[in-house]
Amino acid sequence: MAVTRLAVPQGWVAWLLIGVGAMYLLLMVALPLGNVFYQAFRSGWGAYVEGLTTPEARHAIGLTLLVVGVAVPVNTALGLVTAWVLARYPLPGKGLILALIDAPLAISPVIVGLMFILLYSTTVGMFREWVTWLGLKIIFAPPGIILTTLFITLPFVVREVLPVLASTGREEEEAACTLGAQGWQIFWRVTLPQIRWALLYGVILTTARGLGEFGAVAVVSGKVIGQTNTLTLHIERVYMEYQTVAAFAGASLLTLIALGTVAGQALLGQSEQGQKG
Amino acid sequence: MGIVVERVSKRFGNFQAVDDVSLEIASGSLVALLGPSGSGKSTLLRLIAGLETPDTGKIWLTGEDATHRQVQERNIGFVFQHYALFKHMTVRQNVAFGLEVRKVPRQKIQQRVDTLLELVQLQGLGNRYPAQLSGGQRQRVALARALAVEPQVLLLDEPFGALDARVRQELRSWLRRLHDEVHVTTVFVTHDQEEAMELSDQIVVIHKGRVEQVGTPAEIYDHPATPFVMSFVGLVNVLPGDAGFLQRQGMGVLNGQAFLRPHDILIRTEPHETYTPARIQRMLHLGREIRVELILDDGQSLTAQVDRERFLQLELQPHQRVYVRPREARSFPLNYSI
Hints:
A: 0% strand, B: elongated
């Protein structure tokens, strides 16, 4: 296998390359991540728990869970319907629809926040009269945060589920139909099992993005302490107030969830391959 | 009547898939829809199943108008070309599916599944997943699944298309036996004339969305109604109607074309007044039969077929001079085209 030896450097060159790669990963990823936990636990378990259980921290965690608790089910359900329709019907302008679905990935979160302010703010918003007339509080309130999070997390489920639906085709659904299954039975027993891994993957990505969103939420929330501060906003605030341990305690929580997500993705990737094999 | 198709048409965009088709299929019979790809035969099958809605016309199933009935309510069994087994379910779960959605009691389902797995000879494989089965086994699971709901009509779309030649042969005779046991009205789509001949009681030849001919395999082969049927069902020589080769036997037609089956060409090695001289171009050994490609002295090429005994008796050699005459030719008026 002389060719392989020539193509892949051996000896000290190999060690140098491996070393450079490993160092880079260590410095850029492992060290900062590790430091989050170091800083969080620097003053011991008691300070860590205290940092997470102040009224403001508890409220921020609660608000974040509320936002994700609304955004994830809504975008999962609507994402599923959208993907199914796009996969099953020969719609004109499908490319345009797909581009629209991808738009939230490309638009800067600050702009997203501004967009919603310019729609629903009671002072400058396009719908300000409606909003005032209906007595709604959207901007600088949880509904605004939920709206922006919905916008930002919209693409994930569609993007994961659509290719799987498109590649499996209609035949199994038609077969279920000929066997007497009705619409919902077909969905639960045939379509959903086909796409379950892609769907779960999409849900995980949606959750991770919803939990971690900062920019757009910062714009629409107004950062009212104890009212519209999400976990990411809370972390920023306490950090600015030099409560380093509390900031890193919150950060460690988000980081743990993120790492869990990555692990979940890896596991899903494996079971998916296991299924195919 | 098991199935009646009454003046049904179906168009996809600019493509007329099924064009004013009427058809009657007797209860308990085994019928082939035979035609080349794109002839509309699969669309016709899907129209009968209710997987497509006709633009015009009616579909009757066992005497009832089913045109506006949902697929689910037609009580049909459908076997898809690529089987469409539920990949995430075991063989047992696949077969049980139709019974479960009908809320049949669990114990009855288990009994029925056992009976069906025995019928399709897959007793030991109930807990396998479709990915763990061979093509022929998957095909039989698909059949068992379709038969589980005791359909009035069994529809199969190119049932053997995705299988290799030997398995195909086995499954064909097995399906024929199965039909003789179960006796459900069965319609299958195929582009393979041999398959249609071997399996079916009746063949419906379809071409460009229209029915060309309906008949028993023998009728279709021996008395083709159109040039298309003649040329699609078996090999055929097409000659101008006024060819000297035919005139000599009084078989010529003035306006039109003549169609000859290769085995309707007689060959001898000695000259004779009613025979036309020709030269052998090439010979293909097809097992029991030998195909002889000939060229007449006027440049017309012909394909003849002789059986093994005759071939050995004549001691035919390539490039040999021989004498040929038609035994039977069939002619159609000129306005027919293939």
